[in-house]
Each structure stands twice: as C-alpha cells, then as structure tokens.
Amino acid sequence: MKPAKGNTSNNNNNNTPITVVTDKEVKQQEAALNQKYEDYGLVRNSGEKAGYSAAISYPSASAVFEYLDDWGIRSVPENGKFYCYYDIVRQDKYKNDASIKVTYTTDGSTPTINSTDAGNEVHFKMTSQTPTIKIHIYKNGKLVALDYFTNGHLYTNDGVYDD
Questions:
Q1: How many other C-beta atoms lie within 10 A of the C-beta of residue 119?
Q2: pTM for this one?
Q3: How far apart are CA 163 and CA 34, in angstroms?
Q4: Whose CB among 113, 148, 152, 155 lies 3.0–4.6 Å from 53's, allowing a Cys bridge?
Q5: What DSSP assignment string belongs to 88-153?
Q6: How far is CA 62 from CA 34, 68, 70, 116, 145, in A?
Q7: Sheet (strand 132-139) strand order
Q8: What is the pLDDT of residue 104?
Q9: Bridge partners (DSSP) listed for residue 58
Q10: What sign for the dihedral angle of Cα 89, 133, 137, 54?
C-alpha cells in the first residue's frame, strides 16, 4: 500500500518562511485605505478626483507578487465606452497548489478564507457598485498577504468611462 499523497504540489517550497498577517493588521490596512479616500478627496459618485485610485498591498507589493503574477485593472472598450475589468492571476509555480488559496470580495467587505475563490485566475467586470476589490492570500490556511484596490473613476463617477 502506498502512503497517501499530500495535498501540496511538488513545486511548493514549504521551507519558505511566511509572515502571518494578523486581524489587527487587516483592520489597520482597511483604515489606511479609508484614509486614502479622505486624503484624495474621494466622495462616492461626486464626479471629482477621478484620476485617483486608492490601493494597499500588505505586507508589501513584493509579498503579493510572490503569489500573484497579475492583479489589477485593465480598460476594455464596449459600445463606445470603456469599462474596467479586474484580473487576478496566480504565479505559475502556485497554479493548482492546494496549499495556496486566493480569495476576494467586490462589495467592500473583508475577505475570509471562505470568500470567493479566485482559483488559478479570474477576470471580472467592475461596476460603480463594485469599485473596490479586496484580495486575501492564504498559505496553509494562514493569511500571508493582502491587496485592496478602489478604482477612483468608478468610485467618483458612477462607473462611466466616456471615450
């Protein structure tokens, strides 16, 4: 009888030290995102300050990049207007790695390990109702990185791109 196969992939380096993000740090990063709204003068559907976008990567952008190859918006033309799509794509070395879980929310709420799973990659349209994307990255069930992003144009201009 063969021993049971583990649920981690062969390309997972379990010797890589990880820093666990605490609940207190999550709350601090959410407060920092809210402070950026205030600093930039972002007022929901105000039509002002559209060029600003509030973003937080914690503990650093490089920590997020360790797990994600791509995360962020792209502009897509549809019927004479431009719309924002958001992409979340894992690094190749973590594709299908069960020890890594990437979850996200689009309603401004804080993600948990049980929030929507991004899988290996996900692409979705942002709207004025969903201007904020919050991503949590878990390794072996522990929160190791997060990224929060609010598109200033969607936030202040009810999602309309006229081009």
A1: 13
A2: 0.84
A3: 29
A4: 152
A5: EEE-GGGTT-TTEEEEEESSSPPP-TTSEE--SEEEEE--TT--EEEEEEEETTEEEEEEEEE-HH
A6: 22, 10, 12, 23, 10
A7: 54-58, 142-150, 132-139, 100-105, 116-117
A8: 98
A9: 146
A10: positive
User: Which residue from 155, 111, 148 is spatially nearest to 131, judged by alpha carbons?
Assistant: 155
- Nearest 5°: the CA angle 97, 101, 103 is 145
Residues 6+ apart with CB under 8 A from 130: 106, 107, 154
| 153, amino acid identity | H
Model confidence pLDDT, tens digit, residues 62-105? 999 999 999 998 888 888 877 889 999 999 999 999 999 999 99
Q: Mean pLDDT across the chain, nearest whole number? A: 85
Q: Could you write out the DSSP letters of every residue in 45-80? A: T----TT--EEEEES-HHHHHHHEEEEEEEEEEETT
User: Residue 17, preceding bond cis, omega within 30 degrees?
Assistant: no
pLDDT tens per residue across span 134-159: 999 999 999 999 999 998 888 887 76
Report how far residue 50's alpha carbon sits from residue 127's, in angstroms, rounded to the nearest whole number: 14
